[in-house]
Amino acid sequence: MAAPESIKTNGWRQGSVLQSDLADRVATPEFPDWSEQHRAVVLSHDCDVVNASYDLEPTVELIRAMVVSDADNLLRHGRNPRRLQTEDSSGSLLDFSIHDRWTVRRSELESSAPSAELSIQEDSLHVLVEWVAKRYTRAAFPDAFNDRTRSANKKLQQELKKNGELITGLFLAISPKEECSPDQNYQVALRVTAAKETLALRTREINLVRTTNLIADALRSCKGIDVVEAELVSETLFTLADLRYFQRWDWDFRTHSGEPGGEIVPSP
C-alpha cells in the first residue's frame, strides 16, 4: 500500500507540474474548460508536499496555468495582483489567474511522478509564490493618493508596456501616509528596481533611467503630488531598511473605494 513517503520518493516539490493524465483527472472536476494548453502546478511548500502525515497535511494546493504566446509586460513580476505571466522550464510562457487555485488529496501524488520535462524553476517560482502571498500582504495606499495619481495611468502604462519586463518593482514612500485634505500635497519618493544583471548592460541602464524619469514626470503632472526624488536602483542595493519606508506600488491595478473589494480599512 502506498504511503506519504512515496510522494518524496517520486520527487514532488513546490513548482512541480503534474503529468497530463493526473492533471486531467484532478482538474476537470474543478475546471470544465480544462484543455491540453493548461498546466497544473504545485503551490504548497516543499515541507507540506512531502510531510509524513496525512493527518497534518491532508491536501496539496495547485494552481492552473495557461500556455500563451502573447506576452504582456504589465503582467510580469507580480505587478498585477490578479494575473501573472512567467515561464516554465521549457521557456513556454504561462498565464496564471489568482482565482484558479484549488486543493486535492495529497495521496493523489503517491502513484505518479511529476512531469520530467516541465517545472517552474527557481526564479519564476519565487515570482509565483511572492505573487500569491501578495494577495494578502500588498500595500494599500490612501484613497486620496490613488485618486490623484489616476490621471498618470495612461502614461505609466505606455512606459511599462515598453520596459516592464526589465523592471522588477516600483516602490513609493509617501508622506503623509494617510488621507489628506485637498489643499495638502503628498510628498513622494520613487524607487524603480531592476536586476543587477540587467543594469550591467549600459544601454539597458540608460533606457531604464529614462523610463524612471518619465514615470516620475507622470506623477509630477498629477495635482497634489510632489515627487521629491526618483531613482533607478539595483535589487542588490535595495535593502530591508528601504522597505521600512517604501511600499511596492502596483499602480496599474490599484483598487479604489467604490470598487468591489477595493475599500481601504480606516485607521483605528
How would you characterize the largest beta sheet? Answer: 4 strands, antiparallel
Number of strands: 8
Q: Helical residue percent?
A: 25-40%
Q: Helix count? A: 8
Number of domains: 2
The helix/strand series, from N terminus to C terminus, equals HHEHEEEHHHEEHHEE
Radius of gyration: 21 Å
Shape: elongated
Uncertain residue ranges:
252-268
Strand content: 15-25%
Strand order of the largest sheet: 1-2-4-3
Distance between the termini: 55 Å
> Would you tell me the structural class of the helices and strands?
alpha+beta
On the 0 to 100 scale, the average pLDDT is 89
Can you describe this structure?
The protein has 268 residues and is α+β, with helices and mostly antiparallel strands. It folds into 2 domains: 5-137; 143-253. The protein has helices at 5-10, 20-27, 46-49, 122-137, 143-149, 153-163, 196-199, 202-220; strands at residues 38-42, 59-68, 83-87, 93-105, 169-175, 186-194, 225-234, 247-248. The strands form 2 sheets. A 4-stranded antiparallel β-sheet has the order 1-2-4-3, with helices on both faces. Helix 6 (153-163) packs antiparallel against helix 8. The longest helix is centred in the last third of the chain and has 19 residues, at 202-220. It is elongated, with a radius of gyration of 21 Å. It starts with a helix and ends in a 20-residue tail after the last strand.
